[in-house]
């Protein structure tokens, strides 16, 4: 259990976003000593199978709720710091295939975690969800290589850490100060330390413009407030330093 509320309760339960799209607000995890709220996204594909982005803590009640929604087919670890709960979901949903962004498998192995990754994520969607979910690995950084996704039917863009939007009224004093300094306090942006790793700004700019070109109506983030409306405007605001 989380040591303190995240502000996104109830946790560990499906929350409808759009037709065939749900999110799960999970407990806070410690990162750089700070309590980061967590969020997973579920998409039900045309086949009825479930695609799970950045899995969060799996409780028995949540597992039962997910099973009632459809069979779990795909578990997605979208970047090098979002894979911790994949093994929990694998243990419950043994038939699910696990997909890893660049750097995920190596980091998990170095940290001694027993996670089976079946496939690498690339610049184009695999046959399993082509035509339904667009994807790419955002370029420009040798350190932070994040897979981003766009569910076409619902016009939902799914990000992980490229934008974080921590709401001050949900944070303790020190985390409020930290997020203000880091540039990832609501209304949100790319953390400054991450921004510094993107040395190829032209490549990053091209990929952000591609996301804008997808025309998202909403943008789901893994940490903090997500954008339920005006997705294109949210992207342009968050990346105005680049665009």
Structure commentary:
The chain is of the alpha/beta class. The chain has a single domain (14-236), classed as Ribonuclease Z/Hydroxyacylglutathione hydrolase-like (Metallo-beta-lactamase, Chain A, 4-Layer Sandwich), CATH 3.60.15.10. The chain contains seven helices and eleven strands. It has helices at residues 60-69, 86-92, 104-110, 173-182, 192-195, 201-214, 231-238, and strands at 14-18, 21-31, 34-44, 50-53, 72-77, 97-100, 119-120, 133-137, 147-151, 156-158, 218-220. Strands 1-2-3-4-5-6-7 form a seven-stranded mixed sheet, with helices on one face. The protein has a four-stranded mixed sheet with strand order 8-9-10-11, with helices on one face. Helix 6 (201-214) runs antiparallel to helix 7 (231-238). The relative contact order is 0.13.
